[in-house]
Design a protein that fits this description.
Chain lengths: 310, 502
């Protein structure tokens, strides 16, 4: 196992971890905003998978990563609308809705992928390039890890303070939080709970789908039905372990991302421990995190409770 | 004659079969204090909700400053200058006072916390309200929350302000302060609608409208009526004050020995409290709310642990027992925050009636005994005169008074040895208070030891055998009800210890 501890490998692990973190972080931030509005969206995994497939289809047919990311986000909006219709308008149980959607998404993406590919070989493309930041990326050690990354990685990490600011300091952010804490209060002020919850779902689902697109465009050259690999679930765990706070959620995401990256490298380097052991690490960590961090003080009071207005 | 600030014409509002408001017409002028008076469930809160756009009326018109008011939502009401202080707090506990107030009021993208805070401090200063804008609502006492609720309305410079039982959670001092604020608002030309069960408050209004079962019985100028007439109009009969018969007390039942409960900071919530309640005895706790009444009830019920001291029930030490076990020993507890600790608002009345007993009498193995529950619900609704269309509706839809009856019905049954009641008659009308007193005295006759905390001295004087006063967590002294007077208790409440305690 000592192979994993050489400086080059460690650098590589950390650099790759930033990429994995981007995927989970985008989804986690989207889920965080959604949950703060009171919707416990369990459909993150399915949304991410949909983002992957749409990005793949667009990329394979047009070759434009920007277009692929945008269309994937558009698909995310559609997913948000669907989940919103179920949870907000019809007030279906949030868990049932999310789990149902995940099943639907895994079935539909597979079906669509098969019919797109037909009998031939699935088209593939080369993954997109990184966008190193001049000067900063030349700093030893942290330069390559932090500043030789994809554009979306910078955006994802920059979103952490932005979302924290949004929730704390903006009018809409305050109202979004109120929707999760005490919807009656909002309604008493004459503000629509539904509008805030729909908005949060649209935003969150688009961000999650963007995470899926990023996964598709940087980590694989073709779609696989299991490509999201439970990262959507890790995003949900990260929000809980982060006690519904953006910065802490980011830290939880980093823990998962580093372990995920270790697993990938362990396969590459060929350590003498069965690689399944490493693959298991992020999920074991997620359970451990939930056991250790039991504080749920940040959980919105009315999270997951369908709101019935008079 | 100028146009009235608000006018209702033939207003009707029903919830299914319940006619909460039927054909109500009245008007309130600028600078006038108008009072709504009526029994629990008479439809007062519903009426104010209609006037503020929370409920769309089924029929009738509302004119605001002469213009018909077509309100799609409460936001329209707020924007047009109608403020409502809710009977049950509508605050977000995890938000600061400031956040609770600015939400929905600021149009821009970024919340201007600085300006808002300045404006809020300005308002507080004008009206003499002491509250820290940056404190979390969760950390505020019930009384302070009432001020936060009021500030929410004052922040908008309303032309019409509706106050739904604002003094129910305030002590005498703060109620007086509220009336000083009301006078100031009147002088500024604000029209005010006040809902209250306290006759001395009602008599301070300019005019009073009496409601009974959703209908307007009549409107009187306070200068031309008497409290007796208003009471008669409200209940439709004469009410006579109950007289407590003397009963002999039995052996000691509940004993507290030097009980101390730690507080958040240096000051303990409860400081070295000792007393004994005998079988068939009622001990009253007077004192301004927030002086340790809640910790006292909670430590006896086993919800909180004493840092020091012992609590003994019928010779058994209970201060180290779990709340559940204490309850099973025959302790009933009527908490002061009805819709938070007293009831589960989302559950039906029927379910609320058996909570706590749902593993005992109302269980058949792992299943609930529905026929038995139904029977119990029907009996309780009849016995406690709970006015509701059925036992299936969520308890959260009940009016304040009816909610209290549900809690009373449940806890009274559970309390075979000790009954703790925190503000049991808060917000109740005279008819119900009389009724509750009767039921509590019945319990006393059965030998139950009772501890009742109330900010209504009248309540305690007519009910209790002895009265103790809590001041900043300390028991200032206990006096025998038939050997004391209001002045003596008043002194204790102001923190003056007693020389010859009983
Ligand atoms: N949302 C609701 N759904 C069903 N019934 C309701 C609802 N709100 C009120 N009611 C019923 O309408 C009637 C009037 O209730 P309301 O709350 O207006 O009484 P109130 O006069 O304010 O009483 P209290 O003094 O106890 O607060 C009651 O019978 C109540 O049970
Ligand atoms: Mg009411």
């Amino acid at each position: 196992m000592s192979e994993l501890l050489s400086p080059e490998i460690l650098m590589s692990i950390m650099t790759a971890a930033m990429g994995v973190a981007t995927i989970i972080l985008l989804a986690a931030l989207g889920e965080l905003v959604t949950e703060r509005a009171g919707i416990w969206n369990m459909g993150v995994e399915g949304t991410m998978l949909s983002g992957c497939l749409i990005a793949y289809l667009v990329m394979a047919s047009t070759g434009s990563p920007i277009l692929a990311a945008l269309v994937a986000m558009g698909a995310g909006l559609a997913v948000g609308l669907l989940i919103g219709f179920m949870t907000v308008t019809l007030r279906v149980d949030h868990f049932v809705t999310g789990l149902g959607f995940n099943l639907l998404a895994s079935g539909l993406t597979l079906f669509w992928f098969r019919s797109y590919v037909g009998r031939g070989k699935p088209p593939s493309y080369s993954t997109i390039d990184k966008a190193p930041i001049p000067v900063l990326s030349d700093i030893p050690v942290i330069g390559p890890i932090l500043f030789d990354q994809h554009l979306l990685t910078y955006i994802a990490f920059f979103s952490v303070p932005v979302i924290a600011f949004f929730l704390r300091r903006t009018t809409f952010g305050l109202e979004t939080r109120a929707a999760g804490e005490n919807p009656q209060f909002l309604e008493a002020k004459g503000l629509s709970v539904a509008t805030r919850q729909y908005s949060a779902l649209l935003f969150g689902s688009a961000l999650t789908a963007l995470g899926g697109a990023f996964l598709m465009l940087t980590f694989a050259d073709q779609f696989r039905p299991d490509i999201s690999g439970g990262r959507g679930w890790l995003a949900i765990v990260a929000v809980i372990a982060g006690n519904w706070r953006p910065v802490r959620t980011m830290i939880a995401v980093m823990v998962f991302a580093i372990l995920d990256s270790v697993a990938v490298h362990a396969q590459g380097v060929g350590v003498d421990v069965p690689y399944q052991f490493f693959l298991m690490l992020p999920y074991v960590a997620s359970i451990l995190l939930l056991v250790m961090i039991r504080s749920r003080s940040g959980q919105p009071a009315k999270l997951g409770v369908p709101y019935l207005r008079h | 004659m100028s146009t009235p600030t608000i006018e209702a014409r033939g207003l009707c509002k029903s919830f299914g079969p319940v006619r909460a408001n039927h054909n109500i017409s009245f008007s309130v002028d600028a600078g006038e204090l108008f009072c709504l008076f009526g029994e629990n469930g008479a439809g007062k809160s519903t009426l104010s909700a209609c006037l503020t756009g929370l409920y769309p009326p089924n029929d009738g018109d509302i004119l605001f400053k002469g213009e018909p008011l077509r309100m799609a939502s409460a936001a329209d009401a707020i924007r047009s200058g109608i403020g409502l202080v809710h009977q049950h707090f509508v605050l977000v506990p995890d938000f600061t006072v400031l956040e609770n107030i600015v939400i929905g009021s600021e149009k821009g993208l970024i919340v201007p916390y600085k300006e808002a805070e300045a404006k809020l401090r300005q308002i507080c200063e004008t009206y003499g309200i002491e509250i820290e804008p940056n404190a979390l609502v969760r950390d505020l006492s019930v009384g302070e929350r009432q001020w936060a609720e009021l500030l929410k309305a004052l922040y908008f410079d309303a032309d019409l302000l509706i106050l739904d039982e604002p003094t129910a959670t305030l002590d005498i001092e703060n109620s007086k302060k509220l009336f000083r604020i009301i006078d100031k608002l009147k002088a500024d030309g604000v029209a005010l609608i006040l809902i209250s069960h306290f006759l001395d408050e009602v008599m301070q209004a300019d005019r009073v409208a009496v409601l009974r079962q959703g209908e307007l019985v009549g409107i009187r100028k306070t200068a031309e009526t008497t409290p007796e007439e208003l009471t008669r109009m409200m209940v439709g009969r004469d009410v006579e004050p109950k007289h407590r018969e003397h009963s002999d007390v039995g052996p000691a039942r509940l004993v507290l020995e030097n009980v101390t409960v730690a507080g958040v900071g240096q000051v303990p919530d409860l400081n070295d409290v000792s007393f004994t309640i005998h079988q068939g005895e009622i001990l009253g706790i007077a004192g301004v709310a927030g002086n340790g009444q809640n910790p006292l009830m909670e430590v006896i019920a086993g919800v909180r642990r004493p840092a020091f001291g012992r609590i003994i029930l019928d010779g058994v030490v209970i201060s180290d027992k779990a709340a559940r076990d204490i309850k099973d020993m025959g302790l009933g507890h009527i908490p002061d925050d009805r819709f938070v600790e007293g009831l589960v608002p989302e559950l039906s009345i029927e379910e609320n009636l058996i909570l706590g007993d749902h593993r005992g009498e109302y269980a058949r193995g792992a299943f609930l005994d529905f026929p038995k529950m139904r029977q119990r619900a029907e009996q309780a609704i009849k016995e406690f005169q709970i006015s509701t269309p059925s036992a299936d509706i969520p308890a959260g839809n009940l009016s304040g008074g009816n909610a209290q009856r549900v809690i009373l019905a449940r806890e009274k049954r559970l309390a075979t040895k000790v009954l703790l009641a925190n503000q049991p008659t808060r917000g109740l009308d005279i008819g119900v208070i009389e009724y509750i007193h009767t039921r509590l005295l019945e319990k006393r006759a059965e030998g139950v030891a009772m501890l009742i905390a109330s900010s209504e001295l009248e309540d305690l004087l007519s009910l209790c055998d002895r009265i103790g006063v809590l001041f900043q967590g300390r028991l200032m002294g206990i006096v025998k009800t038939d050997q004391t007077n209001l002045e003596e208790i008043g002194l204790l409440m102001a923190g003056q210890p007693l020389e010859n305690a009983a």
